[in-house]
Amino acid sequence: MQIWNLPDSFQQYEQRITSGVGIEVIHYQNAHEIEKANVQLDSNLLVLLLAGKKEVYAPEKKMRLQTGEGFFLSKGNYLMSEKFAEINRYESLMVFFDDQIAQQLSLMMLKNTGQPIESQRINSIKVASSEHTITFAKSLKNYFHQPLPVGFDEILKLKLQELFWLLCQGSDGSRFLSFLKNLQNKKALTLQQLMEEHYKEALSVEKLAFLSGYSLSTFKRKFKEIFQESPSRWVQTRRLKEARFLLQNTQKNINEVGYEVGFENISHFIQVFKGQYGATPKEFQQQT
Question: What is the DSSP-derived secondary structure letter of residue 93?
Fold first, then answer.
C-alpha cells in the first residue's frame, strides 16, 4: 500500500518554499486525477484550491471542496482524491505548519477571544472562499516567481497569523478556534466514531485501517474485540439498519434508500435486506 508522507514527499518538488520557522509552502499542480490516495501528514496543513475539486476523508468526516475553497487538517492519516473541473489540471496552494508555530500563532487568539469555543474535537475544518483567502493565496503565489525578500520567515508567520485572525472573526470562527485548540490537545477518534462516520462510504477495510492509524492486522483485532464481528459484516448490518429506518420514516424509493446507505448494487441490497429482515425492502415498506 503506497502512503504519501507529507511534506517529506515534496523534498524534490520545484515549486516549494521552506523556512526556518516551521512553515513550508507548496504550489502544487497535477495533470492527473487521483482517487483516495493514502496521505500521512507529519505537519498540520492548510490547502486552498486554485483549480479543480477535492475530496478529503478525515477520520471524523468527509469533505467535498470546489475551486476557491480550502481546508485545515491537523497531523494524521487521511484519504484524498483530486478531480478536474473546467480544465484538465488540479492546482492548489499547500501551507504546512508544525505544532510549535501553530501554538505560537494561536495562543493569543485563544486567550483573548470573546467567542465561545466549541468543546467537540475538531481535527479538520472547511474554509469557504472569501476575499481574505483569495488575497492570501495570491500573495503567497507571487513569491514563487521572484527572489525571496530578507526576513521572509517573519513575513510567512505574519501572513499565516493574519489569516488565523480573519478566520476567527468569520461566521465559523467558533469552530476554527476549536480546531486551533485541538492542535494543542489532540484526542484520538474511537473506532466506533470512525465507523459511524464512514459506514456509507465505499471504503475498503485497508482504507478504514489507514484512517484509524492502525495496521490492518491491529485494526481487525481491535474491531473484533469491540464489535464481535468482522468489519465487512458490521458495515453491511449497519447499512441495513439505516435502510430500514429510511424505509419506515421517509418517502424515498428503494433505489434512493439503497444508494444512500452505501449499496452500489440494488439487486444485492434487496437480497441481503430480505435475508436480514425476512422481506424485501418494498414488502417491508408496504407493511409499514
Answer: E
Model confidence pTM above 0.90? no
β-pairing, 3-6 vs 34-41, is parallel
**pLDDT tens series, the chain, 288 aa:** 789 999 999 999 999 999 999 999 999 999 999 999 999 999 999 999 999 999 999 998 999 999 999 999 999 999 999 999 888 999 999 999 998 898 888 887 777 666 556 556 788 999 999 888 999 999 999 999 889 999 999 999 999 999 988 888 877 788 888 888 878 666 667 899 999 999 999 999 999 999 999 999 999 999 999 999 999 999 999 999 999 999 999 999 999 999 999 999 999 999 999 999 999 999 999 887
Q: Which domain holds residue 178?
A: 3-183
All three cell numbers of 87, joined, read 480544465
| CA-closest candidate to residue 124, choices 168, 204, 191, 183 | 183
Centroid of chain to Cα 240: 26
Calpha distance 165→231 (Å, rounded): 42
Neighbours of 267 (CB within 10 A): 9
Instruction: Output 252-257 pairs: Cβ under 8 A, ≥24 positions apart.
Output: 254/281, 254/282, 254/285, 257/281
Report how far apart, in Å, the C-alpha atoms of 184 and of each of 39, 94, 103, 282 are.
22, 21, 7, 50
E strand or H helix that includes residue 24: strand 23-30
Ramachandran region, residue 35 (left: φ > 0; alpha: ψ -120 to 50; beta: rest): beta
Residues 248 and 201 in one domain: yes
Domain boundary, last residue among 132, 161, 183: 183
SS3 66: coil
Q: Final residue of a domain: which of 141, 156, 183?
A: 183
In a shared domain, residues 63 and 196: no
